[in-house]
Design brief:
- By secondary structure, this protein is of the alpha+beta class.
- Helices cover 17% and strands 37% of the residues.
- It has seven helices and 31 strands.
- It has a five-stranded mixed sheet.
- Helix 2 packs across helix 3, helix 3 crosses helix 4 and helix 4 crosses helix 6.
Amino acid sequence: MGTKMEVAQLESRMNVEDYRKLRGLFLDPSGAPRSLSRTDFINLSWSSVGRGSGEEYGLLFDSVLVTRQQRGLLPDVDAVKGEGRIDWGGLCSFLLLHLSDKVKNTRTSRGPPWKPPRTLTCPHRHPVQKLLHLQSSCQYLSVSKGGTVAVWDAEDVSLLRTHRLQNSTVSPKDLWVTDVVLLPNAHKIAVSFTSKEVCFYDIRSKQDFECKYKIQGLKLIPWCLDYWADPSNPDHAVLTIGDNGGQVSVLHFTAAQISLFESPRTDSDSADIIRWEELMEGKQRSCYTVTHRGHAPARVRKVRYLDSLDAVVSCSTAAQSSVAIGWRQKESRSLRVTSFITKSGVWDMDHHRGLNLIATAGVDHQVLLWNPYVTSKPVCGLVGHAGPVTAVCFMHNQQRLLSYSRDKVLCLWDVSSQLCVRRLAGVFPETQGDAQTLLFVHEERGFLVLSFNSRLLLLEEQRKRRGAASTSTL
């Protein structure tokens, strides 16, 4: 039998007119009520309603019968599936019971999960491009568009020190950061710049953030980054770059802990120079590159390497290439691309490894959940925002999702029931124009940080007092 979530997916896509069509199926030609077998229900529903699949209607049929059996209305589950029939009254009873469960779950989970928000004393003058957790030093790192790095204490999120990134290629006034990622196995951060460079800074050196490598000669501006290292073999790692012309580039490292690149040339920073052409031509023995242009000519907004799928997922605000997945072809070292289409494109996305779902933040106000293998339609839509959704982030320890929209509303969703279990509004700062907003979640600490251009707002999870059992409502 199907899961509650699978049945709910069909229900969430049906409207009042669809249910009217279903009701008509339970009337014979004379208008008298009738019951339907499983085969008749699937065939008639699929052809009449024109929404969903035969498999989904089969799951709905089985759920109605098994629910009736559990309530003592039918004798045996096996007999239900083999000989059972349902009528309109039975279907309505199941739907009402399911709705009652949803309401009950919503009421029990609406407790306020966060303390009153706290504005952090922030040194940034430009929009914050990324927040990172440095697990090795128990610190947080924030990096702004202007190249300022702020280091924060992980316990109370107090500011410890600041630093300004150096890049001899451009003058300080022309240095603009587009994204940052942490390379924990190499003890570095990779920073992309509008100067069409990616620089790698050592976070353990005596001289703070000393530049060790520079990738130069990119054709377009690297706009977003992602990094993954194999926990069982940290020498194997993947850096993914999305640029402002729609190209996604995937750099596979084979000796990341020893040396990311073989690079004889240096510049005035004493940084090793790696030419992009050399990477594309395979001249680096410890690194090889594969690319695709699934978003061209639109700007790539976000990239993620999914090790569980051996694929890279990316998004853009172009409707025809809202989400693209590049599936790795091991034999040819190439990528096979599949694309998801939405009405107006996607600002942000995230992936839940356990559920194997991709969440997208839609320009059309929608939060959609996708099965990576099904490009024709989303699994479901989460309805609750009245403005473009700009950020989404899964709670990976639980089946929950956070989303934030330009109507200044933060929603916490229970993925299994597809319900908004917490809606937070009226506490976020006023900003001029469309503020750049990031969501940063540290589940173990119960911290949620939102950035509004250069401002940082901390939401801390409500916890029970000492002596009571630990709880997490995030």
